[in-house]
Amino acid sequence: MFFHAHPDDEALLTAGTMAMLAAEGHRVVLVVATAGERGLADVEPGEELARTRTAELYKSAAALGCARVVLLGYGDSGLSSDGGVAGDRPDNAFIDADSEEAAGRLAKVLIEEEADLLTIYDPAGGYGHPDHVQVHRVGGRAAEIAGTPVVLEATVNRDPLLKGLRLAGRFYRFPAEFDVRAFERAYTPGDAITHRVNVRRFARQKRASMEAHATQAAGGEGPRTLAVMLKVPGPLYRLLFGTEWYVRRDLPAGARLTHPFDHWPRS
To answer: Pfam families this protein is in (predicted)?
Structure first.
């Protein structure tokens, strides 16, 4: 089971792993906390955007081979300009949900599915979105309630990301509000990552998942991350996006495993 905050998060962080596990015959279930109705898009925020992004989510899930999609129905908490919690969030915002109640709802799905693996996010929620931090809290507690044996924190290797951003900064002028230094605290350093999953064989499915989220490739005054990713040509796409990273907290940081179900130590 893959637990995400908004539609399109699965495409960016775990799509290759999902497609790989589905191809191996596993039942893959995608659970999403919100419909992403407050995300930046050309569609007006609110119910119309929620409907559109939900349709995009199902299209993405189909491309990845998911057997089931579950929407928990919480409101998108939004993101303030300084990267914190938005002040005008809805009454049912995911960030304001009772963590134990939300964990119970997720645990019910885990038990229904007899899930043997759950993915969440790292404690910082990757880049710090409040809903992503809540996914970490709620998902971790749900796994405890359900007795799910394997919990993986989906993340990004911070080390090459920082190198790439600093190199890009020599040739490209980032917007004034973009602070490369913020990524010094985002995601996870390489020496703490336990799983490096090679998903290059599933680049086609991962790209199709990204393409499904058309609203997230537009909107705003500058280029969107998803739009930039989709412009990368095939061979380079497989190189840049062909690895997905995870942390399993009950394993040593130097485990360096290559499949979600790998054991440590290896037999």
So the answer is: PIG-L (PF02585)
CA 231 vs CA 58, 92, 224, 225, 226: distances in Å = 23, 36, 11, 10, 9
What's the whole-number mean pLDDT along residues 33-48? 86
Strand partners, 246: 154, 195
Residue 110 and residue 59 in contact, taking contact as beta carbons nearer than 8 Å? no
- What class, spelled out in words, does domain 2-157+186-247 have in CATH? alpha beta
What is the C-alpha to C-alpha distance for residues 155 and 41, in angstroms, rounded to an integer?
A: 24
- What is the band of 238 on the pLDDT scale with cuts at 50, 70, 90? very high
Coil vs helix vs strand at 104: helix
Q: What is the C-alpha separation between 113 and 129, in angstroms, rounded?
A: 28
What does the H/E/C string look like for the chain? CEEECCCCHHHHHCHHHHHHHHHCCCCCEEEEEECCCCCCCCCCCCHHHHHHHHHHHHHHHHHHCCCEEEEEEEECCCCCCCCCCCCCCCCCEHHHCCHHHHHHHHHHHHHHHCCCEEEEECCCHHHHCHHHHHHHHHHHHHHHHHCCCEEEEEECEHHHHHHHHHHHCCCCCCCCCCCHHHHHCCCECHHHCCEEEECHHHHHHHHHHHHHCHHHHCCCCCCCHHHHHHCCCHHHHHHHCCEEEEECCCCCCCCCECCCCCCCCCC
The answer to whether residue 175 scores a pLDDT higher than 60 is no
**Where exactly are the structural domains of the chain?**
2-157+186-247
pTM for the whole structure: 0.91
